[in-house]
Amino acid sequence: MTDICNKCKGPLRYGSSIIQLAKGQYIQDHITPKYRSNQPILLEAHEECDIGIPIKPQRLPYVCSLCNRQLDHKDFVIYAVIGTKPTPQFKQPERRGKTIPFIAHEECWEYRIHSNCSPTPQPKGQFRSFLVKLRDWFSQFVQTK
Length: 145
What we know:
Layout: E1 17-25, E2 34-35, E3 41-46, E4 76-84, E5 102-105, H1 106-115, H2 125-144
Antiparallel strand pairs: 1-2, 1-3, 1-4, 4-5
């Protein structure tokens, strides 16, 4: 976890409102998925910084923000949470609330964001252009790491 916003490069201070994108595993009836690896955090940014993902808060049970299929227990996911930046010994934002602003099957994230192919028909219009921008931004982010 870093103290620098991945979008604007400004400082992320303890207690400030952030959005965190992470890899996890969906556990049925748990609001926040559990982290899936030793380095699960893909990015952290100020809440007001646009990280290029569709923000549509939802309550349990969750559906994939990309394919609209319901998530199953133990599915691997990419998800975002909004909360306050924790002290350095913790990773997950505090005061996350009871909703998830973005959650997607890991395979949907991979298919639709990274490879431009999909097991379902390609999105059209504004949503498609959004996904292309997100894929390009995420590819650029990964290359700078």
